[in-house]
Amino acid sequence: xxxxxxxxxxxxxxxxxxxxxxxxxxxxxxxxxxxxxxxxxxxxxxxxxxxxxxxxxxxxxxxxxxxxxxxxxxxxxxxxxxxxxxxxxxxxxxxxxxxxxxxxxxxxxxxxxxxxxxxxxxxxxxxxxxxxxxxxxxxxxxxxxxxxxxxxxxxxxxxxxxxxxxxxxxxxxxxxxxxxxxxxxxxxxxxxxxxxxxxxxxxxxxxxxxxxxxxxxxxxxxxxxxxxxxxxxxxxxxxxxxxxxxxxxxxxxxxxxxxxxxxxxxxxxxxxxxxxxxxxxxxxxxxxxxxxxxxxxxxxxxxxxxxxxxxxxxxxxxxxxxxxxxxxxxxxxxxxxxxxxxxxxxxxxxxxxxxxxxxxxxxxxxxxxxxxxxxxxxxxxxxxxxxxxxxxxxxxxxxxxxxxxxxxxxxxxxxxxxxxxxxxxxxxxxxxxxxxxx
Amino acid sequence: xxxxxxxxxxxxxxxxxxxxxxxxxxxxxxxxxxxxxxxxxxxxxxxxxxxxxxxxxxxxxxxxxxxxxxxxxxxxxxxxxxxxxxxxxxxxxxxxxxxxxxxxxxxxxxxxxxxxxxxxxxxxxxxxxxxxxxxxxxxxxxxxxxxxxxxxxxxxxxxxxxxxxxxxxxxxxxxxxxxxxxxxxxxxxxxxxxxxxxxxxxxxxxxxxxxxxxxxxxxxxxxxxxxxxxxxxxxxxxxxxxxxxxxxxxxxxxxxxxxxxxxxxxxxxxxxxxxxxxxxxxxxxxxxxxxxxxxxxxxxxxxxxxxxxxxxxxxxxxxxxxxxxxxxxxxxxxxxxxxxxxxxxxxxxxxxxxxxxxxxxxxxxxxxxxxxxxxxxxxxxxxxxxxxxxxxxxxxxxxxxxxxxxxxxxxxxxxxxxxxxxxxxxxxxxxxxxxxxx
Lengths: 438, 438
Known about the structure:
The structure is a homodimer. The first copy, chain A, is α+β, with helices and mostly antiparallel strands. Chain A has ten helices and 30 strands. In chain A, the strands form eight sheets. A six-stranded antiparallel beta sheet of chain A has the order 20-21-22-29-24-27. In chain A, helix 3 (88-101) packs across helix 6. The longest helix of chain A is centred in the N-terminal third of the chain and has 16 residues, at 122-137. Chains A and B meet through strand 17, strand 18, strand 19, helix 10 and strand 21 of A and strand 17, strand 18, strand 19, helix 10 and strand 21 of B.
């Protein structure tokens, strides 16, 4: 099975866990059988590999997510990096060209596309496999998954199948309706369109060439910024007469809001928390290392992260976006290609961060014009290079760097340090990168 | 006016703002006319000085509060330090001996005793003054304040006056009643006993000599630990026939719980917070530098501090103590004689704290057996002494100290530093203090 997972952009609907640099799909929120926590993307990847150990998984995403994907899934996963956001048709075209030109997938092989963030069971991935197999038959150019509705939702588009067979020709598509219209669609046998479909690789590659002038993957990548934003539904699906739908009746949730996310939690709380016995239907997700105490709350969601604290009525939580959009905030935590950092103190002329470098990784070689820095290594072993001078470091070592000096650090074992930044105008944009001489 | 403010022990009823080292009376929670925030003790002290600029104010407290008192009130305030807690009779006896022997107050001057934490207006302090003046007349040995009840409270003891006059002989005292009994007391004209009273200094000094064998203040201080715990009410008030009560009908609240504290806030929130328009009767006190967002909450109190986060229904918040008593927690913030510190990162073999030294102050000269330390000065100017070697420091300087080495830092201007502690068993108890050679 060749599967393309569309990994959407960052957003604030799950603030303070998600924000401009941290996407919901990377938040470790699901408890596994071993008691560890995994993220949406880790859960989906694990499930795919359970159903088909040989599946080729490619994640179509922006470059801001590449570090997080490698940190969470390792290096085996394919990534089709979108140089910028251009909606789903360019993204799927690019991923398809990537599969063909970089991964060497043959033109008649089928490809399954699905979002990276459904909360589903293994039967969903069995259904994806069946979708691919159906596409491989060539009875239709596109085979969609039609999800059996469980309620008349206004959130989804609907697919009207021609018959009630498990696999049917698509009669027509319907835009997101109001509840009454949704009820009438469902009475007609309509299915939810979850944005999941399969095709033979050449089909989308040909469509891409029809609509975009390019030679191969590298060329498409280079001119990606010039492409028009257009959705795959609009550019392809709605215009395609040879199109089938396969029914899926298993559990399917999209975890886009606090309300749906907390319903998918196997236990009511994650992290350090105490709920007294007068609490009812309360969820806590606490990423801080101090306790959250809840007393006498009903239908409340509490989440605390380095970015802030949300306390919301369950229903109200779906209206969070405009509120947090107004909050101007420094990024307090981020995953990087080499590990992660967290801001631990902000003062007038200084910023203190905790840096964790993963074993075998190093930062870019860089300098800052307007700030000095001090590294206090608190654990692990590694090597620093400062203005070309290399030296090993371990816990207890201190490295001071004046503004303008070039520096990097690499980790042999996991290495943690407290970085003190000193200057009047500290900014993430004050950074020049350099090549390291061999 | 000679006034003794009884400053009670620390407690967790206002967790996460108060805890084992931080008492509620030092939390800056009241907005002043200038827009600054002041604590209970600052508010009361300011109010006393407004009513009587020449008042002699002495705070009777334990040594753990001395630093916070000097930080918040300056050096002018008198402090009668209890070497350990021995209930109110020994505390008031010690404070009275302190007034006599250290402050030189004459035996026939009157002394007014009141708790440090009432939330009251200036008329309360006018009433205290009147109480002192009444005691000076010598009509009775003790003059109590009787607060006009506003509801049949179960929380207070009651004073039954002999007459309805503004000043009356006390007929009798009643223990904390149930609501029905309280109603019947109030129908009889009973008043709340707020633990406020005045006497001529010699009266309590004589009582102290009757009950405790001691020569003077220094002697009483030295044997304080051997004294029996006994309340002033039990030892003196309830046995005294020559006792009067003066009515007080002004506003009077004791701010012992989240519920009463938040009612005294002039604005619903303190600190970085956003409440959407579906919130109703919500208070937020946020001491962290990230926002608290509240949505759709009714009658909820939210408080976030370096120690933790409380989210509680308003009524339920009065049951907090047993819950937070169970939380075993490192102290994350403390005021010290020289300034304050805050824990900003906790890791397996390191602890990182931010230290603020007030101008002109210095830490004790000390060493640690089991940890190394690194000081990263982030602002201000001062002087460090490490193993007897003195050198000036400023922002950007780094000082490293191996375990065993003696060190201190003093601030010329306000000085802030990030202290990285490194060791396997980091403990506040791992500290030896030394005298600094002149």
